[in-house]
């Protein structure tokens, strides 16, 4: 084919902004990290069109139910991009999805991820996947597949977003939820590692109006603002499963009777706890039972954020809540603390009307269930 002097330059995929060779390099860099997540049930390796997982083990279940969840990490990715630190975001992604399915008592089996970016920088993509892989190891699930998509023109070269999905399994008779919760049950809180991955639109706006930069060192936090905001989401999967199983997998039964579990994400503590309570019961949460980490008070003061808005947006130091039978409280606390997870009694479940003070949340997130009454106050 001949080209005349006035003909336009040939259009290529690379010229349009997509570097397939960079994508191949990113895959090579992430291979070792993906391999660390491998479970015996994984069939094949990285690079296939589909991830394969052998479910022969499910034959031992009487009625296995598959559980699935999908999510991202929201605008927290902007903090990672501004600081050019990308390995923690993957950890956040895993926490957002695996801890949603363990709420039902499901064991996470495998996960897939999706990364959309303006330009593939192999080292950056590999760092994100490294975080995903490290968190999958903590959660006990395999990273069975994923996709990296380059979207020039839609995203700036240094922009990206991440999403993921997890699949798990639970025996039908062992599903946790509102139907198991009883009058007299006790709420056991599990500490968050910080902000986790919700409410960052509020937090970023607070920083904007206050003029505080991410590099600013804050004595109260013991590190910079950016380091605090990138603290990875705590992954509770194995902690919750160990609690639910009551130690029976290790040949002993220490009597932990868990009825329901709530993952405290967007919407805050009350809204997410209300989702796992049956209609006709009310959980009373004592705000004075814990002191939120300094970052929460800092956000409130810098932005003059109303406390009720803060409470509806951030986890305020509680990442998960287990609803347990009263006779199981000591065993539950002991098991969690033995795993290095701070835990405490948050409140109780009972019939509505026992208390008239506080703030009540009911019917949260489309669930017509029980109510949560937040009483007392906290030093924020």
TrEMBL record:
Q: Which InterPro entries match?
A: PurM-like_C_dom, PurM-like_C_sf, PurM-like_N, PurM-like_N_sf, PurM_cligase
What is its EC class?
ligase
Look up the EC number in the record and give it: 6.3.3.1
Instruction: Please name the GO terms that the record assigns under molecular function.
Output: phosphoribosylformylglycinamidine cyclo-ligase activity
Where it sits in the cell: the answer is: Cytoplasm
Q: What is this protein called?
A: Phosphoribosylformylglycinamidine cyclo-ligase
Family membership:
Belongs to the AIR synthase family.
One Pfam family cited in the UniProt record for this chain: AIRS_C
Q: What coarse category fits the chief subcellular location reported for this protein?
A: cytoplasm
Please report the organism this UniProt entry assigns to the protein. Answer: Angustibacter luteus
Q: Which residues form the PurM-like N-terminal domain?
A: 65-170
User: Where does this protein act, in terms of pathway?
Assistant: Purine metabolism; IMP biosynthesis via de novo pathway; 5-amino-1-(5-phospho-D-ribosyl)imidazole from N(2)-formyl-N(1)-(5-phospho-D-ribosyl)glycinamide: step 2/2
Q: Where is the PurM-like C-terminal domain?
A: 182-352
Which reaction does this chain catalyze?
2-formamido-N(1)-(5-O-phospho-beta-D-ribosyl)acetamidine + ATP = 5-amino-1-(5-phospho-beta-D-ribosyl)imidazole + ADP + phosphate + H(+)
Keywords annotated in UniProt: ATP-binding, Cytoplasm, Ligase, Nucleotide-binding, Purine biosynthesis
PANTHER family assigned? TRIFUNCTIONAL PURINE BIOSYNTHETIC PROTEIN ADENOSINE-3, TRIFUNCTIONAL PURINE BIOSYNTHETIC PROTEIN ADENOSINE-3-RELATED
């Amino acid at each position: 084919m001949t080209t005349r002097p006035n003909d336009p330059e040939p259009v290529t995929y690379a010229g349009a902004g997509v570097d397939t060779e960079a994508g191949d390099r990113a895959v090579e860099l992430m291979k070792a990290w993906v391999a660390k997540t491998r479970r015996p049930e994984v069939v094949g390796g990285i690079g296939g069109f589909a991830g394969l997982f052998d479910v022969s083990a499910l034959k031992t279940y009487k009625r296995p139910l598959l559980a699935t969840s999908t999510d991202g990490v929201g605008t927290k990715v902007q903090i990672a991009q501004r600081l050019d630190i990308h390995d923690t975001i993957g950890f956040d992604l895993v926490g957002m999805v695996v801890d949603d399915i363990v709420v039902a008592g499901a064991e996470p089996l495998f996960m897939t991820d999706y990364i959309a970016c303006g330009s593939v920088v192999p080292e950056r993509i590999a760092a994100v996947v490294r975080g995903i892989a490290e968190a999958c190891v903590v959660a006990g699930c395999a990273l069975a597949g994923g996709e990296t998509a380059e979207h020039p023109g839609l995203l700036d070269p240094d922009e990206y977003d991440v999403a993921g999905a997890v699949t798990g399994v639970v025996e039908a008779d062992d599903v946790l939820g509102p139907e198991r919760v009883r009058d007299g049950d006790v709420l056991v809180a599990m500490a968050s590692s910080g902000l986790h991955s919700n409410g960052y639109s509020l937090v970023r706006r607070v920083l904007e109006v206050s003029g505080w930069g991410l590099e600013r060192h804050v004595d109260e936090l013991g590190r910079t603002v950016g380091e605090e905001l990138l603290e990875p989401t705590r992954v509770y999967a194995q902690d919750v499963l160990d609690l639910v199983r009551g130690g029976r997998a290790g040949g002993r039964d220490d009597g932990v009777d868990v009825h329901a579990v709530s993952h405290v994400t967007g919407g805050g503590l009350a809204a997410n706890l209300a989702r796992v309570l049956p209609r006709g019961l009310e959980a009373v949460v004592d705000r004075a039972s814990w002191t939120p980490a300094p970052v929460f008070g800092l956000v409130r003061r810098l932005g003059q954020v109303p406390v009720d808005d803060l409470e509806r947006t951030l986890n305020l130091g509680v990442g998960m809540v287990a609803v347990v039978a009263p006779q199981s409280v000591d065993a539950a606390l002991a098991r969690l603390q033995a795993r290095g997870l701070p835990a405490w009694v948050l409140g109780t479940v009972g019939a509505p009307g026992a208390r008239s003070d506080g703030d009540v949340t009911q019917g949260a997130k489309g669930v017509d269930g029980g109510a949560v009454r937040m009483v007392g106050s906290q030093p924020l």
